[in-house]
Amino acid sequence: MACNRQKDNTQNLQTQIDSLQANTYKPGFGEFMSSIQVHHNKLWFAGENQNWALADFEINEIKESLDDIKKYCTDRPETNSLGMIEQPLQNVIDAIQQKNVTAFKSNFSILTATCNSCHQATQHGFNVISIPTTPPFSNQDFKMQNGK
Ligand code: HEC
């Protein structure tokens, strides 16, 4: 008798856990992409200004969002195509670490082309990414401050 009641309670708890999990907010693939879009833009202006600390920060934001897609978007077949961006991303990271603006710019172009390769491969070829011409926000300064 006591044993059965405990089983009922456990089942109740499990039902509650399941319903909590179903209602937990999880950002979708498109939301991660919108975040990547902003950091891709900022990354360009950080690198162009040779503000390597900011460039390093921005590329890590992109990396984190890509990792989050891997973690949270396992139900999306497009997630399987993420591997193609790893080497281009690493090449930009290397250029930032070497503080090499020429390598930064050429590798940023390759990175951008890879964004588009994946969009084409995943039937989102209408989402075309390009090298930005203006920063996303007017209230952020991309120049290095006090030589740092
Ligand atoms: C794994 C393949 C893949 C890679 C790599 C990729 N994307 Fe995407 N991207 C997608 C898919 C799939 C969508 C559509 C997401 C959805 O369902 O809303 C998308 C959508 C977008 C959108 C539209 C978001 C919106 O809702 O308006 C932007 C902007 C974008 N990506 C930027 C980028 C940038 C910048 C890069 C490179 C740094 C990149 N993507 C790399 C697959 C990829």
In short:
With 148 residues, this protein is mainly alpha-helical. The protein has helices at 2-23, 29-48, 52-72, 86-97, 101-121. The termini are far apart.
Can you tell me about this structure?
- The chain has 148 residues and is mostly helical.
- It has a domain of 93 residues: Four Helix Bundle (Hemerythrin (Met), subunit A) (Up-down Bundle), CATH 1.20.120.
- Helix content is 65%, strand content 0%.
- The chain is built from 5 helices and no strands.
- Helix 3 runs antiparallel to helix 4 and helix 4 runs antiparallel to helix 5.
- The relative contact order is 0.13.
- The structure holds heme C.
- The site of heme C has 20 residues, from helix 2 and helix 5.
- Heme C binds next to helix 2 and helix 5.
Following the backbone from N to C, one meets helices and strands in this order, namely: HHHHH
Give the helix tally: 5
CATH homologous superfamily assignment of the domain at 29-121? Oxygen-evolving enhancer protein 3 (PsbQ), four-helix up-down bundle
Helix content estimate: 55-70%
Supply the key terms.
about 150 residues; mainly alpha; about 65% helix; about 0% strand; elongated
What is the secondary structure topology, with strand pairs?
Blueprint: H1 2-23, H2 29-48, H3 52-72, H4 86-97, H5 101-121
Helix pairs in contact: 2-3, 3-4, 4-5
Bound molecules: heme C.
